Amino acid sequence: MQDFFDIDGLRLRVAVDGSEAAPPLVLINGAYSNLESFTPVLAPLAARFRVVRHDWRGTGQSDGGPRAAYRFERYADDLALILDRLDIEHAIVCGMAYGARVAARFALRHPARTDLLALYDVSLDQPVDQELQRQGNETAKQLRKEAGLVEPTRSRTWFEHRDQREAMRSLTAHVDQSDPTPELARIAIPTLVVCGRQDVNLGEAQRIAGIVPDAEFHVMEMTGHGSAQSRPDLFASLLIDFVKRRG
Q1: CA nearest 97: which of 161, 187, 28?
Q2: What CATH number is given to the structural domain containing 116?
């Protein structure tokens, strides 16, 4: 199911897959992408969960909004309102990269609605050098090739936006915000932290896992940034296993 919900005066695109009777799982996509970017992991996850995805304000097919509302707190509260519309009281919340920042903020603002938390490719500090990120991805890709792994096919549509200007503005949520990582010490939710060996965020991800009281940390080998697109089977299996053990 795909629909548009009126949230805080904006029309936000929402997609729901899987059985309505299954445990709800929220997937929050990374920067420069829309909800379709989770396509590589959707089938195995929708077989086990009621998967909720959305284009956060300004991205994909969703409306933009006031510049001042491009903040992680607002993105987290938008998600809470989306869950209200779906009559979902609480869910497993999983974010990747920039989306992990939203997931972390959701857990801080709405802990009672967060059953489990999963943070992939995560850093909550200022964004890293994009060139270093690209180099890491190229190194990981070469390692996968040498190991004989089949490279997943990417679609340009996963990175398309109705208004490219608003999509870029939506990525200013970190501007003038201090590093919220120390706040994670008050998260009393089982948390999965995962990062690729070749992801430039690896050190920050490990730091975050050391701050969250009930966190476990996993390194994805031969993996750079955007792990759901480069290692979808591993991405999904780590999440499914975590939920089986801690759900």
Answers
A1: 28
A2: 3.40.50.1820
